[in-house]
Design brief:
Blueprint lengths: L6 H21 L2 H20 L3 H8 L3 H35 L10 H10 L4 H10 L1 E7 L8 H17 L6 H19 L11 H35 L10 E5 L13 H29 L7 H7 L5 H24 L12 H17 L3 H17 L6 E7 H15 L13 H13 L13 H14 L6 E7 L4 H14 L6 E6 L2 H15 L2 H6 L3 E7 L1 H7 L1 H21 L3 E7 L11 H6 L9 E7 L1 H7 L2 H20 L7 H22 L5 H8 L2 H4 L22 H10 L4 H4 L2 H10 L3 H10 L1 H16 L2 H11 L3 H25 L8 H30 L6 H18 L4
Parallel strand pairs: 1-2, 1-8, 2-3, 3-4, 4-5, 5-6, 6-7, 7-8
Length: about 900
């Protein structure tokens, strides 16, 4: 890649930086701008010559009053660099699309289908497979998005202005008008508090998800399907039916109650109702525009029979649609206010589709296909993508909560086994009891059952779910599921609540031991005749990435996930059950993050058979879907990967590679647990050298950072665990254990084997690529500065030295196996990291000083320092584009 490709990006960054500098001068004073410029210059020099002392000197001399504005200045610049970078990705994508001589983009449908045709796949079969794909992206509210929504809206506007400034037809006056608008946005951004002062509620998080749908996905998804339809017609001669959506969205926001006491039955009910209000409102806007377009008087007999002798038959029928949508929105408003509403509303998608399809067919019959394929086709595709419930809401709850409810019920009814309560029954006895009750026509739960508060909350949740249409609900996910009775208990509670079309139940296997036992648990479950008939030939299983990596380290967890998927597929195939795997990935490498296309193609062959679910979390939602062009590209990457993995899965790995992978997993988990779980120095080191304790001050998400209020590192959730290590640039969860395991194999003369695996096995290459990316973002010198300034224990210092050596070892073995410097094949990422480092470094130095000062202060003396610390955390997160 030549430097010329970066030139427009550099110009945008320079423009935004200059406007930010003007803002600092005008809104604060000249001295602040001079201080920031001096720090920036010294930071660049420190990166070039390795002499950090002048930078450290000036940062240590800053008075408390300057810490906040200086930290804010660098944070704002990094956010603007992110905006420029995202816009540059859109710019390059459009340049590629305009180049008629350019080869089809890797990961695109245009590149994949010709390859499938060349390999001998039938065109009609390819098109049918695309139509039957079920790729579902699940938006979650994990607290990795540190930027406030009010700023995100300003950032979206800045992206739009940059797009306008790229237009070659702008007059000088028009260009100046856009520059003035850009200046106003940057001033407004500076004058906006970037730190949340209050934790968002689960309803706030759900509204944030709805805003993402409204602003981009509502437009991007149907447009992507239109493009896909055109490509299928061009390459296979087949069309994509209007009533299918090979890719769609679901949500956990307002449904994920695992460890979050703030998500109650009432909250879930409110979020489901808000989603129906939002959908009705969006469709109302569409119908209004469609009525404006369809002032046509010619129609077919079917439509004429429906509306009578009306001069504008399409508008007349759409008037009815509009009224019913208005009723649906009013019903949702009344429900939210606790009032009743008696007018007819839309209860399901089919009711909305019927008049729209009637209009569509009439336009076709009357020779107006061009009109039919306009905004009406877009609306039809939106019904297929979103429906009247906007997204399907998943519910997640921990297995013991259901077990406790069944235990309370059986104790109240005096049902015991060998005089023991349900919770102490053998697994087989639990299963037998649950199946008997599922087949029993009388209810199990008495009408006036005196449930505890915890049990009543679970029962109330099922009561809410029983009132919902099937289109509103996705999967019911059971975390920490270990036994078939965990699934059967949920099924029984669904039945007791009166669920007519109960949600499919997806057990979540998270820890290393759970993953290793997943196949046996599902095999035992599917051996139950009643259950196998009940699921109608389809089982969903969720694979957890975050907790397994926190438990065993990235490498061992990744291999356990791979083997669990293989075993689960074998179990389901044996009994003729279709399996859908739900990948609970996070944004960071150590939580399964990474390029989606490569991640899906690296899964075990045969495990993606037309259907897959993947979580999209926190800042990755903003990163992938905030701009329409980026959203369309990511939708294409997911769709193409699912199609390729279905029709052209990779070959199975050689047994020697599997043996090597098992050896690496065993050695890496031993090293990881030796330090994280068994080294007495570790907790002191972690708590002292990272801002883990300070992170609790940030009002990130609605969920507590810990599963238990008390407890140590083991009780910390995977997200703040990763977030803390990312802040001080050691990135420990992603590489600990891996470097040593690989080094041992290199010492044993296995370089050729490892290089063969890297070249020929998608899965191993993806692991190496992710290791390479995270090690490139890590910085041993920054991490050592945290150690030097914060550590007070000689024991913790000695552990720090060991970890630094381990990091260097991981760095060296990656370069040895790949045979080249880090990121040589990804120059854009290398460029991005190098550009950002001088702006992140002052934030690291600021953060360390603030941590030192805060830990020495008394309560009530910390407000200014806390604000500066929060800004530094947000800035570093923005600069690295990774948090949890």
């Amino acid at each position: 890649m030549t430097n010329d490709l970066h030139m427009p990006l550099r110009e945008d960054v320079r423009l935004l930086g200059d406007l930010l500098g003007d803002t600092l001068r005008d809104q604060v004073d000249e001295s602040l701008l001079n201080t920031v410029e001096k720090i920036r210059t010294l930071a660049k020099e420190a990166r070039n010559d390795g002499d950090w002392q002048p930078l450290l000197d000036i940062m240590s001399e800053l008075p408390d009053s300057d810490l906040v504005p200086v930290a804010r200045a660098f944070t704002h610049f990094l956010n603007y660099a992110n905006i420029a970078e995202q816009h540059h990705r859109v710019r390059r994508r459009k340049d590629h699309q305009r180049d008629t001589e350019a080869a089809a983009q890797e990961g695109s449908i245009q590149e994949l289908i010709p390859r499938l045709l060349k390999a001998g796949h039938d065109p009609k079969h390819i098109a049918n497979t695309v139509a039957q794909l079920q790729t579902e992206l699940v938006l979650t509210a994990h607290p990795t998005e540190v930027t406030r929504r009010t700023l995100l809206r300003k950032y979206d506007d800045i992206s739009f202005i940059l797009e306008q400034l790229d237009r070659p037809d702008l007059t000088p006056r028009e260009r100046q008008s856009q520059l003035d608008r850009l200046r106003r946005r940057i001033i407004a951004g500076w004058q906006t508090d970037e730190i949340r002062r209050h934790k968002p509620t689960p309803v706030d998080e759900a509204k944030w998800g709805f805003a993402t749908i409204e602003s981009t996905l509502w437009h991007a998804l149907p447009e992507f399907l239109r493009t896909l339809d055109d490509q299928l017609q061009e390459l296979t001669g087949e069309r994509l039916p209007l009533d299918v959506a090979p890719i769609r969205f679901a949500s956990w926001m307002g449904g994920d109650r695992d460890g979050n006491p703030n998500v109650t039955a009432k909250v879930t009910d409110e979020v489901l109702t808000l989603a129906r209000w939002e959908a009705a409102d969006l469709f109302l806007r569409d119908i209004h525009e469609l009525r404006e377009d369809l002032s046509i008087g010619v129609c077919n007999d079917a439509l004429r029979q429906r509306v009578g002798n009306h001069s504008e038959p399409y508008r007349e029928l759409l008037r009815e649609v509009r009224q019913k949508l208005q009723n649906t929105r009013a019903w949702a408003e009344a429900r939210l206010d606790g009032d009743s509403f008696d007018e007819p509303i839309y209860l399901n998608d089919e009711e909305l589709l019927e008049p729209l399809q009637l209009i569509y067919q009439s336009l076709l019959d009357c020779g107006m296909e061009a009109v039919a394929r306009g905004s009406l086709e877009t609306i039809l595709r939106r019904v297929a993508c979103f429906g009247l419930t906007l997204t399907k809401l998943d519910i997640r709850q921990e297995s013991t909560r259901h077990r406790d409810v069944i235990n309370e019920i059986t104790e109240y009814l005096g049902i015991r086994h060998e005089d023991k309560p349900y919770s102490e029954w053998p697994e087989q006895e639990k299963q037998a009891f649950l199946v008997r009750e599922l087949q029993n026509r009388r209810p199990l739960i008495p009408k006036h059952f005196p449930a505890s508060d915890e049990a009543q909350e679970v029962l109330d949740t099922f009561a809410v779910l029983a009132q919902q249409p099937a289109s509103a609900l996705g999967a019911y996910i059971i975390s920490m599921a270990t036994s078939p009775s965990d699934i059967l208990a949920v099924r029984l509670l669904q039945q007791e609540a009166g669920c007519q079309t109960p949600q499919r139940i997806a057990p979540l296997f998270e820890t290393l031991s759970d993953l290793e036992g997943a196949a046996a648990s599902i095999e035992q479950l599917l051996a139950n005749d009643w259950y196998r008939e009940d699921i109608n030939g389809h089982q969903e299983v969720m694979i957890g990435y975050s907790d397994s990596a926190k438990d065993a380290g990235f490498f061992a967890a990744s291999w356990a996930q791979y083997r669990a998927q293989e075993s689960l597929c074998q179990v389901c195939e044996k009994v003729g059950v279709k399996l859908t795997l739900f990948h609970g990935r996070g944004g960071s490498v150590s939580r399964g993050g990474g390029p989606a296309h490569e991640a899906l193609l690296s899964q075990p062959p045969g495990t993606i058979k037309g259907s897959v679910r993947v979580t999209e979390q926190g800042e990755m939602i903003q990163f992938k879907f905030a701009l329409k062009e980026l959203a369309m590209r990511n939708l294409e990457l997911y769709t193409a990967a699912t199609l390729e993995a279905t029709l052209a899965p990779v070959e199975k790995p050689q047994q020697s590679w599997r043996d090597m992978m098992q050896t690496l997993a065993d050695e890496s988990v031993e090293e990881y647990r030796r330090i994280v779980h068994h080294d007495d120095r570790f907790v002191d080191y972690f708590r002292t050298v990272t801002p883990e304790q300070e992170l609790s001050r940030l009002a990130l998400g609605s969920r507590p950072a810990k599963r238990r209020a008390s407890g140590g590192v083991e009780s910390l959730r995977a997200i703040p665990w990763v977030f803390a290590w990312t802040q001080m640039r050691l990135m420990l969860p992603a590489w600990l254990g891996t470097g040593k395991a690989l080094a041992q194999q290199l010492d044993a003369g296995k370089l050729d084997t490892l290089q063969d695996m890297h070249k020929q096995w998608n899965f191993f290459r993806m692991l190496m690529d992710m290791q390479e990316m995270v090690i490139a973002k890590a910085d041993a010198k920054v991490a050592s500065y945290y150690e030097k300034r914060l550590l007070t224990s000689s024991n913790a210092e000695s552990l720090g030295s060991e970890l630094q050596q381990g990091f260097q070892q991981a760095h060296d073995v990656i370069e040895t196996i790949t045979g080249q410097p880090l990121l040589q094949d990804i120059p854009m990422l290398r460029f991005s990291i190098d550009v950002r480092n001088p702006y992140i470094d002052p934030l690291h130095i600021t953060q360390v000083e603030l941590m030192r000062r805060l830990r020495q202060q008394q309560d009530g003396q910390t407000q200014l320092l806390e604000q500066a610390l929060m800004v530094s955390i947000a800035g570093i997160a923005a600069g690295l584009r990774n948090t949890g």
